[in-house]
Amino acid sequence: MTELFNKLKLVPQSWYAWQMVPGYVGQRNVPYCSPIFVEQVVPKKTGKGILTLDFVNVFYAEGGRTSPLT
After folding, report:
1. In the prediction, which pLDDT does 15 show?
2. Is 49 part of a structural domain of the chain?
3. Which of 27, 32, 50, 51 has its CA 20 to 30 A from that of 7?
4. d(C-alpha 51, C-alpha 46), whole Å
């Protein structure tokens, strides 16, 4: 039963931290980190725990544009 309480819950209309590992490969080779605003969370209902997220990536190079992620 305690296993259920240790999982991350994604709540729409909330802020989260985004980290991309290994990040952008180059001279610095550092992870990319950004705040994101999660607009929508939709379960795919496959039984595999897959979600579709709509979010705004604030530090994205082209600006904070909305990004769907499946």
Report:
1. 96
2. yes
3. 32
4. 9
Containing domain of residue 24, as a range?
10-69
Helices (H), 1-70: none
* pTM of the complete model: 0.68
Report phi then psi at 6, rounded to 5. Answer: -95, 10
The DSSP letter of residue 12 is: S
- The pLDDT, as a whole number, for residue 22 is 75
Q: Cβ neighbours of residue 60 under 8 Å, at least 6 residues apart?
A: 34, 67
Q: List, in sequence order, every beta strand (DSSP E) within 1-70.
A: 14-20, 32-43, 51-57, 66-69
**Three-state secondary-structure class, residue 9:** coil
List the structure tokens of 16: 């989260």
Structure tokens at 52: 């579709």
Q: Flag whether 1 is in a domain.
A: no
Q: How many structural domains does the chain have?
A: 1
